Amino acid sequence: MIAAGAVVALLAALAVVKTFEQRLPAWAVRIGLAVFVIGPLAGLAWAMWALWQRALEPVDLVLLVVFSVITGLGTSFGYHRLLTHRSFQTTRWITVAALAAGAMAVPSRPIDWAARHLEHHAHADQDGDPHSPVDGLVHAHVGWLFSVTPAKRDRYCRRLMRDPVVMLVDRTAVLWLALGLVVPALIDGWRGLLWGGIVRIAVHNHSMFAVNSICHAFGSQPFETGDESRNNRLIAIMAFGEGWHNNHHAFPSMADHGMGSKPDATGMLIRGLERVGLVWDVRRPSPAAIARHRRQREHRPPKIGVIADSQPEGAD
Predict the structure, then answer these.
(1) What digits encode the pLDDT tens for the residues 163-196?
(2) How far apart are CA 112 and CA 124, in angstroms?
(3) H or E segment at 297?
(4) How far is the C-alpha of 2 from the C-alpha of 126, rounded, in Å?
(5) Beta bridge partners of 90
(6) Helical pair 92-105 and 58-73, crossing angle rounded to 10 deg
(7) Closest CA to 120 of 244, 249, 222, 235
(8) 67: closest CA among 184, 170, 174, 234?
(9) Residues 63/195, Cβ–Cβ less than 8 Å
(10) Angstrom distance (rounded) from CA 221 to CA 112
(11) Which residue, 99, 146, 274, 311, shows the most beta carbons closer than 10 Å to its own?
């Protein structure tokens, strides 16, 4: 009960921070973000100790996997490819479910997430990029969160702010985040909360953070994009296909980042839903566009002193 009360109190504090972040002092927002970044890592350390003590039941592993898949696809399928880049069209109910699953995963409202991601694309690895390794790998991974800069919703996401379905989830985002912790706790108490909630959030956070950091520093660049975006197979597997980041920067609205030949769980889901008619207008680059970007890459002078350019063949 004490643990559950602590979690509820932290969620309530987070709700206040995310609701009034533009009115609160910067130090208060930073503390709220620090709790959500450090808290799941502390939970992961506790879970490792619990595992050593054999305090893990099969149901907890099921909760970890199931909620990891739901929320991971919520971020990749819902927040990223559907909401931000409009890589495909789908039904109203799938849109609500996908965005709600994304809200379960991260302490960010969908429109804020989309605005910051579009800002990243507009200034990738240049001044104005909110999270680039040009400013340091730690900054790109997690440090940028503490800049406490409001998402530029009006500049990048006016169309989303006029969408009642999107705004419904946007206004209730913290409730969905809470649900992602409460449900596993109801199923298996403290262990369910630990594995299906806290550990799951820690793994998800740093898998997605790694797209901003690792995938702009280590990996391969089959396409010329004018930035340091890179393909990284390990991150792609951990982040539901998001690790094919150079592919994504070459063709931002492309639905299948693995381009049909690389492991991309989200791309597979989109193709499956397309076959049964639940997804349509799926965006794919033309063969001519793919060839053009590859030619640009082949004719670009090699960079000097960039570690990632020396990655062995097959690093993607």
Answers:
(1) 999 999 999 988 898 898 889 989 988 888 888 8
(2) 18
(3) helix 287-298
(4) 46
(5) 279
(6) 120
(7) 249
(8) 184
(9) yes
(10) 29
(11) 99
